[in-house]
Amino acid sequence: MRITAAVMQKADGTLTRRRIEPEEVELDDPYDDEVLIRITSCGVCGTDKGAIHGLEPFPTPGVLGHEGAGIVERVGRDVKSIGPGDRVMSGFPFCGECRTCRRGEMRYCEKGQALSFSGHRLDGSGGMRRLNGEPLAGRFFQQSSWATHTLALERQLARVPDGIDLDLCGPYGCSISTGAGPILNELRPIPGSSIAIFGVGNVGLAAVMAARLTGATRIIAVDTMPERLAVARELGATHSFEHGKDTAAELKELTGDQLDYSVEATDGSNLVDEAITALGARGTCAMVGGAKMSATVTYNHPDVLMHGKRIIGVMGGGGQTPRFLESLMELQRQGRLPLEKLVRFYDFADVNQAVDDSDIGKAIKPILRMPH
Ligand SMILES: [Zn+2]
Ligand SMILES: [Zn+2]
Question: Which structural domain, as residue segments, surrounds residue 108?
Fold first, then answer.
């Protein structure tokens, strides 16, 4: 069928970022285990921007977008749990068969990298092409939702219950679960504990909101942008620090060197060393921020060893199941996870503006609305 998709063009050496232009393209029919979705909205997330800036591998020309929400139009022959007319949002893709998938840890699927970044299905087909026949890299996170319609795997979808604003739901699939998941699934702060969140963009602010749902009594936001720190305080941070060279020492002073948890959520894992240093003995640092694929981090090894500190990576919030996504939606509906305070909506045609506004911090969580 003919759809409109935002196509990321080939790299142009004269530009600092790749151009994106909505154009009419052809989309194939769904496979037996796939669903055709009329996309109503899709978030702009760090990994989209990483691809646009050439920091993440994704072939061009291709179609990005991995926080899609919409209404099911058609389903493949084997799809049983979802039908036409259902409201759905799309989470991370996974194979469902590998060791980690069988253990219920789909965020660590052994085929996750290929499913998210190869630009095609595991069988090599892409499913999207230009009107002149030129193949397009699609299937970004097996969805490529910067489009009016897309295909996704049945198993990566969660149903959106009635009473929940569908246009807000896409970001639960990536940035919001990436921030809230480390708190709710992994760190699980004990009552009276302290937690510092380094970087309060959309991911870090989701961590702040999630921390507020726990018994942690000190929720400390660290960022370079005072406006974002103000939002963090509004969402539940009890303390905030403008990042400077003494931030780790200031955190030690504030907590009496007993910081229990830190979350590194900067756009590039820039502050991992400080997030580890700031911890008290037996503290845990969760690394969740996006980084260049070639990034390495340094930390003070004797400090980590002697104080029994722990460092964990948490991909996309960890342990994702439809139940986790559905619980985030329900928490938002109850007013306990006020995602709507981070969001700025853009028309699909203004996708480049949304990306630029996000880059400069003017928009915390841009969501594109599709024209239907
Ligand atoms: Zn798998
Ligand atoms: Zn993302």
Answer: 2-174+318-369
Residues 301, 355 within the same domain = no
CA 208 / ligand 2 centre spacing (Å) = 18
Residues near ion ligand 2 (Cβ under 5 Å):
45, 47, 174
Digit-coded pLDDT (tens) for 109-145: 999 999 999 999 999 998 999 999 999 999 999 999 9
3-state secondary structure the chain: CEEEEEEECCCCCCCCCCCEEEEEEEECCCCCCEEEEEEEEEECCHHHHHHHCCCCCCCCCEECCCCEEEEEEEECCCCCCCCCCCEEEECCCCCCCCHHHHCCCHHHCCCHHHHHHCCCCCCCCCCEEECCCCECECCHHHCCCCECEEEEEHHHEEECCCCCCHHHCHHHHCHHHHHHHHHHHHHCCCCCCEEEEECCCHHHHHHHHHHHCCCCCEEEEEECCHHHHHHHHHHCCCEEEECCCCHHHHHHHHHCCCCCEEEECCCCCCCHHHHHHCCCCCCEEEECCCCCCCCCCCCCHHHHHHCCCEEEECCCCCCCCHHHHHHHHHHHHCCCCCHHHHEEEEEHHHHHHHHHHHHCCCCCEEEEECCC
Q: How far is the CA of 325 from the centre of ligand 1 (A)?
A: 18
Instruction: Mark whether 130 and 268 lie in a shared domain.
Output: no
33 CA from centroid of ligand 2 (Å): 23
Interval between CA 48 and ligand 2 midpoint (Å) = 7
Q: How confident is the model over 7-34, as pLDDT tens digits?
A: 998 876 666 788 899 999 999 999 999 9
pLDDT in tens, 262-297: 999 998 778 999 999 999 999 999 999 776 667 788
Residue 41 CA to ligand 1 center (angstroms) comes to: 27
